[in-house]
Amino acid sequence: MAQIDTSGGGGKKKKGAQKKMAIHVDFTPMVDMNMLLITFFMLCTTMIKSQTLQIVLPTNEDVKKEQQSQAKQSEAITLILDTEYNGDKPAVDANTGKTVHNIYYYEGIADTTFSTPNYLRKEEFIGNQNREAQGIRKILRGKNMQVMEEYEKLKTQWKNKEITKDEFDAAAKKNAADSLKTRPVVVIKPGPNTTYEGLINAIDEMNINQISRYSIELPTHTDTVLLRRYEQDHGQTIIRPTVRAKARTTAAAAATDAEASTNS
Amino acid sequence: MGKVKIKKKSTLIDMTAMSDVTVLLLTFFMLTSTFLQKEPTIVYTPSSVSEEKVPMNNLVTVLVSSADKSGKLEDPTLAEGKLFISFTGDADSTLSSEKIRGMMLDEAISVYNDQHKNNRITLNESQKAAFRSTNMIGVPFAALPEVLSMSVTERDKFLGDMTNPNVGIPINDNKDRDGRLNDFQIWLKAIYNVAQRINNEQGEGKSAEEKAMLSNLYTALMRKGQGIAIKADKDTPFTTVQLVFDNLQTMKLNKFSLMTALKSENEPTN
Predict the structure, then answer these.
(1) Which member of B234, B239, B262 has the closest CB to residue A197?
(2) What gap in Å lies between CA B224 and CA B237, rounded to an integer?
(3) So where are chain B's domains?
């Protein structure tokens, strides 16, 4: 592999002069080996590092009525989540290629008299468009305006390098929990057909909009009543048998059918 | 006509530069990437704007399997909601992952045997060693001795079959009729006990404040909520994940984290 070129330079050789040796080492095998190693690392490792989203849930023990903290009616907003299904798979939007999640929300106490058409409103997770909050984000942002204004100020300070990232984080946290400001209390209620992604999206909106007070609860009877009424008024089906329950019953029915046919 | 003489050229190419490049690439990959963890099932986590990284050490990961996507199963939901647990210990060797896993296994088995006096399980040394070297485990306690006796390839094959009723840690009954904990809760209890014991040992003779500053599994679990991470597929129904949440709440581990992928705030959420 390694060759030593001893041809020297021309014919004139001085006696006693040291021979100049050009050394060529062939690096081809070395390159081969490196390429193999690179291939190995590319296949067996990952560059993606997962992120974590922290949540705190309340205790699931029975809490006495007196001990429960009551949210002010004007501050409360309830989001009922739902995911659209296409057969037994979540429905995918043809344009964006993403799963379709719907949010049905109401402010304050549920209006079971249906006196206004706004007893339940429908929104979607749209995110930002042209740097403007859209969909449910716009509504939540509006509810949390005082905190968001301060937050934007802090953000500009941080971007202008007036404060460090740590200072910014601490200030933002304090700002989000500032009890002197009007802050909403959000109740997230994932419906039976909601996917995990729908829930994460909702928690994400809380983080984006700096909402410090939110809880995850299961839908109650009142919510079902509201959804039923919404279905009637808008001529669409929201409450379906859960996709999983349906799959189980059809499987069970098929099994009994098969049994019946073998018996007869 | 004179013959055209073809000059003989040396075909030697100097590969030194090429070698330099490949070594640089190799170094880059070695430094930036982390090894893929062997997991019995593949899940695609939903994305969030959270920028907090998953901790490398002192982490308990709960993997929730998703419905079958290969289309091989008649009822894809049969593969859904199987639980797997993995433990990662400290980066330094005194409380390495292997040692922590061993402690957790011993604790979990003693809790299990305490609750199931009529069908106790015992593991021999080689089975325990197999557990210590396994990254992710997800079988009912009753099947643990059998699964740990398998060879690594056999076990991977066994755990990869999501339709097998013996795959996945049982979670269904929050508490059964005799008030016993389910298998998932036993694991959580064992994790909590071990974490607390380690915290007490490390913090011996230290004040409560100093104890709270220790960076171990206990502080991660109790104070930061970074000790337990749930990894579930984005299309898994919430009800399936809710079951895991509910069990964590029952065990008073109300603070935990959810694993997500990164996305930017401006992206449409969906």
Answers:
(1) B234
(2) 27
(3) 56-262
